[in-house]
Amino acid sequence: MQELIRPGAEGDVLAVVSQSGADVSFFDAARHTPLGGVEVPAEPHELCFDPTRRLLWCTTSYRSGFYHANSGRRSELTVIDPDTRRIVEVVDLAPEHAPHGLALDAARGLLYVSVEGGPDRSGGVVVIDTATRRPIGRIDTGAPGPHWFVVDATGTTGYASNKEAPFVSVVDLGLGKLTDRIEVPGSEGIAVSPDGSRVFVAAPYGSFAGREDGAGGRPANGVRIIDTARAEVTATLATEGLVFPVHHTATGRVLAGELRMAPDPGAPLGRHAPGRLTVFSGEGGERLGGIEVGLFPLTITSSPDGRTGYVACVVSSTVDVVDLESMRRLGRLEIGLGDGAGAHGLAYVPSA
């Protein structure tokens, strides 16, 4: 696979969560060959790489299953050395539970982790000191199920998507409190532009209840664009399928992963069909292209130069590697062992 090597990718690594397989796999980012893995507590979901300390953070959300269909919530974060591929520490956030979304402020040495709410408190964001690897604060988000969380480049403002609440939560990270609610139908993935002027959020929430056609019930599928200065949605990037992951590349592209279903007489909601990666201009909103990917795209990331996209698909347990300039698939990585391994969280780890 020598022809797939990209300049500057030598020594870089892609880390991928196997949700049901309960491990993190590592791949050579130039050749797409496996490098081994590490077992982690079940059931891992998302990854975040801290380049300052060269550590990977991995959230463990549930004992098994997924949001609203699980056998119990967990409370652990696993800290991994990606160079030795060994666990450094398992951090227990209890009594907080169901940690999921991860956002890093490397300049301040702070990691933000979204956690679900309970009878005695709303969902929120736990603040971790990356030097001590210990919680130092909590910020309420005013909704029971904050799932993904992003921080702007200044490290002053954070945004949480909320699966069921009809708004995106805005938090002042300096004050440590919720400051605004921006009206958005229950939402999934979220990303922020490098200058902090726009937030891109996938909506509506994937409840799988009824048709996603925007007619008389659920809102139309797509990615809502929030103008952060005005604190309101100003446009929508329309998609055919329901969008779960959203990612903003270093080159200004917005990547949306669309779930697609095919009719099936034996299944009310149909059966999974190949998903789609749809690419938009983050500045003008133009549709730049798209490509078919695996079943149920759930996480997206890209290389630091913005040229290569990675789409983790949980039902097929694959990661599609896509050239974002030619919209050509460079490879497909098989994640985990057997059916149901569930490719989910992704992190790109540049070489040391």
Automatic annotation (TrEMBL):
SUPFAM superfamilies: Nitrous oxide reductase, N-terminal domain
InterPro entries given in the database record: Host-pathogen_enzymatic-act, N2O_reductase_N, WD40/YVTN_repeat-like_dom_sf
Domain of life: Bacteria
The name this protein goes by in its record: YncE family protein
Lineage of the organism: Bacteria, Bacillati, Actinomycetota, Actinomycetes, Kitasatosporales
